Amino acid sequence: MNQRLQRLADQIQRTLSVLIRDEINDPRLTGFVTISSVKVSPDLGYADVYVTILEPANDGGMNADAHRESLEVLKNAAGFLRTELSHTMKTRTTPRLRFHYDEITAHGNYMTNLVNEAMKKTGENQANDTENG
């Protein structure tokens, strides 16, 4: 991706983060939406927006199934978000937004949680061994 497209992607990411937080008031969007990355097509026709959603009720379940409804809310709001985005951008056209669940980031978070749990259990086992030994 060239530097111009990268700057545009960064601007879209920053602006969408604020718009989703402040303007989307749908009660079905229950989680905290994080935009992992944005990839803009060379012709500025589309912007693929990769999101992860931290749902408070799902005990950290980071998978696409747990967040399907929240992702649908974002997909349905894509037209509104594109219109709002066009007011802040200084480009002739505003790319169409396509939202995707970011499996890579979600999987990384899941693996980090597993490692932290394993480290905690190892520490507890070592403490028990020193007490019993």
From TrEMBL:
The keyword Cytoplasm applies. It is found in: Cytoplasm. It comes from the Bacteria. Keywords: Cytoplasm, Ribosome biogenesis. InterPro entries: KH_dom-like_a/b, RbfA, RbfA_dom_sf. Transmembrane segments: none annotated. Gene3D superfamilies: 3.30.300.20. Monomer. Binds 30S ribosomal subunits, but not 50S ribosomal subunits or 70S ribosomes. Belongs to the RbfA family. HAMAP family: RbfA (MF_00003). One of several proteins that assist in the late maturation steps of the functional core of the 30S ribosomal subunit. Associates with free 30S ribosomal subunits (but not with 30S subunits that are part of 70S ribosomes or polysomes). Required for efficient processing of 16S rRNA. May interact with the 5'-terminal helix region of 16S rRNA. This is Ribosome-binding factor A. It comes from Moraxella oculi.
